[in-house]
Amino acid sequence: MSNALGFGRAELRRLAGSPSFERGLEYLSAVSALEIGERTVTAAVAGTDVYEVELTEDEDGLTGWCDCPFGQEGNFCKHCVAVGLTLLQQSESVPEHRAAAASRGRRLTTWLETRSRDELLALVKEHIAADRDLRRRLELRASAAGDDPGAVRECILALLDTRPFARYGYVEYADARAYGLQAAEAVSALRTLTETGRTTDAVGVARSAIEALARTHGEIDDSDGIIGDVAAALAAAHLDACLVAHPDPAQTADWLVDLLLGDLSDTTDIPLSGYADVLKATGWTRAHERAAAALRENPKDWAAKDLMDQLLRMEGSVDALIALHATDLAPSGATHLLIAQELERAGRPAEALEWAERGLREAEPDHGPDPRLVDFACERYTRAGRSADAVQIRRDVLRRRRTLAAYQHLRTAARAADCWDEAERTRALDALRADARPGEGLGHRGSALVDALLDDGDHDAAWAAANEGHADARQWLTLADRTRDHRPADALAVYLRLVDPLLTRTGDAAYEQLTELLLSARACHRALDTEADFTAYMTTLRTAQKRKRKLITILDQHGL
């Protein structure tokens, strides 16, 4: 690990996973426009398109963002790996670049601090003239700073209006960020009301703002959670105003219950625990009465049950809380787990384990048992020195659910009990083998047997199972990636077999997959000292695919 950086190759591999890390190695030559800041690094990486990458180092470690499809799902993708590796190659110059970035920041701050009021005003005017969204936000914030409560309310609600951003009645993902920036101004305006002593106005306007955002939240693509953050900030602003204004407890309880039991409750999570000093005994009683009435009317009303759950937790009524949930036990055992956890928190571990065991017995095969319930029971057995009981539960789960996760948990429990021998492993693998359905080609569903053998590092047995027809395309690729250094001929056959169906497809995703497979095939040919064969193969492929100009461009970028 470099002295200048808080990460190394091992951390990049951990964040991305081995497959993405290995693919990132192939993209080192595709990194450009690298810019090193004090804490962030930005770059462009040429793939199917040119993707923007940003790496950030802070006290929580390294994080990465990329606008490729895989990266937008929150994954540390191969493009992030490529940028991280490029940064490691230049690690000696990182301190210099970071110092330069810090110096630029200080110079900017100093320059701004030494500008006159008129100069700063001219600068702001220049930017709002060029940025319509910034101008609109500042205009609305200025209006919200006025003295007329009605005008302030209108301005804050205008900040939450989706119509300027909606296309065909819906705010698309591409516009959600700009809308979120404007909506955040509503929070600032609300806090200004509270800070300037207009707390009663702030309470009323905050309620209107929360309701307005809740009505439109379903019309916004909030994939990044920006609008959810605004909703949480509005709720916090409402609570802060209430803590100062002390509105009527019963009326406040009614508003909160209406919100939590109504159709608008999905937008923001408002925990009642924060309102203890606002609701007082009168408000708590009112909320309790309404929650109880809602449950009498509809015992399966999840919103009413959640509200009553919050109230009972605040009151510390463990037995009442258990009675509430015991009336409607989930077939997965999830409710049994909830009750067990509450009993354990209350210092009643024996009863907690009884409920966990009951959940394991009563869970319906098609729905459970919930993995968290299994973990809870096994952890308690292990603590009590009952490792054999934990192993038996894991065996039962594997018989019910023949998955890689079930196999891994049994292996861990058996090792802890010192009984993971060849006989135990064979029985576990036989259970997975019994569920396997051999298939032909790449389109059928793979078997957990192959995943388990790969997880054990038993690559020869994994190859045998795959050749028996138990592997799907994903598993074949994983097997090839992991063993190509030792079995390059076998891996090459897999890569070429996976290439064939992609040659008939078009589009960015297909071209990206095809390029990655060809890079891997090239590595196998190099290991086999048959690069001339690969050159001939690529000449034929490029001739056949010459009409796909974007594909040919990508192949050129990677020297294919």
Short account of what is shown:
The protein has 560 residues and is mainly α.
Topology:
Elements: H1 9-16, H2 18-25, E1 31-36, E2 40-46, E3 50-58, E4 61-66, H3 69-72, H4 78-89, H5 94-113, H6 117-130, H7 132-144, H8 149-159, H9 173-195, H10 199-216, H11 226-245, H12 249-261, H13 276-297, H14 302-315, H15 318-326, H16 334-345, H17 349-362, H18 371-383, H19 387-400, H20 404-416, H21 422-435, H22 448-456, H23 459-470, H24 473-483, H25 488-502, H26 508-528, H27 531-544, H28 549-557
Antiparallel strand pairs: 1-2, 2-3, 3-4
Helix pairs in contact: 1-2, 1-4, 2-4, 6-7, 7-8, 7-9, 8-9, 8-10, 9-10, 9-11, 10-11, 12-13, 13-14, 14-15, 15-16, 16-17, 17-18, 18-19, 19-20, 20-21, 21-22, 22-23, 23-24, 24-25, 25-26, 26-27, 26-28
Instruction: Characterize the overall form.
Output: flat
Query: Helix/strand-derived class?
Result: mainly alpha
The overall pLDDT, averaged over residues, is 89
Cα distance spanning the termini: 33 Å
In terms of per-residue confidence, which ranges show pLDDT below 50 for 5 or more consecutive residues? 440-444
Largest sheet: 4 strands, antiparallel
- Portion in helices: 55-70%
Any overview of this molecule?
The chain has 560 residues and is mainly α. It is built from 28 helices and four strands. It has helices at 9-16, 18-25, 69-72, 78-89, 94-113, 117-130, 132-144, 149-159, 173-195, 199-216, 226-245, 249-261, 276-297, 302-315, 318-326, 334-345, 349-362, 371-383, 387-400, 404-416, 422-435, 448-456, 459-470, 473-483, 488-502, 508-528, 531-544, 549-557, and strands at 31-36, 40-46, 50-58, 61-66. It has a four-stranded antiparallel β-sheet. A hairpin with a 3-residue loop joins strand 2 and strand 3 (50-58). Helix 13 (276-297) crosses helix 14 (302-315), helix 20 packs antiparallel against helix 21 (422-435) and helix 26 packs antiparallel against helix 27 (531-544). The protein is flat. The chain starts with 8 loop residues before the first helix and ends with a helix.
